[in-house]
């Protein structure tokens, strides 16, 4: 179980973006978080993925409170999450070829021996051809780069996926393809999903349930 209890978070303690937000995702469950742009849902998603320490509140994973964040979190916690952000060009190192982008988490966690098999496997899963793997971010489209970012998020076989507006910048066919990849991964592994967005129809189709931001924050 992934639980966020009374989370307050932001980038200035005097003006938090998120105030007293609570949300739970059961193992294997897909939850959509719906809300307008700028409401704070992306910040809450970063807290859920251990990428941003909250100012107040508790994050529990399988009933155990999380005490450390980002690089200070134990490796088994960090690798339990796969994250895909809205803007792939802001989350991809422009110097890396797509193959190296996908392999980043494997190298960072000392699993280099898996790179030759895992990278081509996931590239095929997300629809990247071998020639695209040799290109850098500026040489591919947003959709192709987002496919690589999704492959990177899946490469460590995470138990939880956090998709923060993953399809917001994509066309309909690429959106459908990437949603299908996530659904297939969840069906095969039982991973939980927190999908953040402002498209109610997409979240309702994709998720087991959709919650609105107004029901997550303490009014």
From TrEMBL:
Keywords: ATP-binding, Nucleotide-binding, Transport. This is ABC transporter ATP-binding protein. PANTHER family: D,D-DIPEPTIDE TRANSPORT ATP-BINDING PROTEIN DDPF-RELATED, TRANSPORT ATP-BINDING PROTEIN. Residues 2-218 form the ABC transporter domain. Belongs to the ABC transporter superfamily. GO terms for biological process: transmembrane transport. It comes from the Bacteria. One of its GO terms (molecular function) is ATP binding. InterPro entries: AAA+_ATPase (IPR003593), ABC_transp_ATP-bind (IPR050319), ABC_transporter-like_ATP-bd (IPR003439), P-loop_NTPase (IPR027417). SUPFAM superfamilies: P-loop containing nucleoside triphosphate hydrolases (SSF52540). Transmembrane segments: none annotated. It comes from Streptomyces viridosporus (strain ATCC 14672 / DSM 40746 / JCM 4963 / KCTC 9882 / NRRL B-12104 / FH 1290) (Streptomyces ghanaensis).
């Amino acid at each position: 179980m992934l639980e966020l209890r009374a989370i307050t978070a932001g980038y200035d303690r005097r003006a938090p973006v998120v105030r007293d937000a609570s949300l739970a995702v059961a193992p294997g469950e897909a939850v959509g978080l719906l809300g307008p742009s700028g409401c704070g849902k992306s910040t809450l998603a970063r807290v859920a993925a251990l990428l941003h320490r909250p100012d107040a509140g508790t994050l529990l994973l399988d009933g155990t409170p999380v005490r450390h964040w980002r690089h200070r979190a134990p490796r088994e916690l960090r690798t339990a999450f796969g994250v895909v952000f809205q803007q792939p060009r802001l989350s991809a190192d422009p110097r890396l070829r797509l193959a190296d982008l996908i392999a980043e988490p494997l190298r960072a966690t000392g699993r280099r021996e898996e790179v030759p098999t895992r990278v081509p496997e996931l590239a095929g899963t997300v629809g990247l051809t071998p020639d695209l793997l040799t290109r850098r971010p500026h040489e591919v489209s947003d959709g192709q780069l987002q496919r690589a970012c999704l492959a990177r998020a899946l490469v460590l076989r995470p138990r939880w996926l956090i998709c923060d507006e993953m399809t917001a910048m994509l066309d309909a066919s690429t959106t459908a393809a990437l949603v299908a990849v996530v659904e297939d991964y969840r069906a095969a592994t039982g991973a939980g999903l927190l999908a953040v967005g402002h498209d109610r129809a997409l979240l309702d189709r994709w998720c087991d349930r959709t919650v609105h931001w107004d029901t997550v924050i303490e009014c």
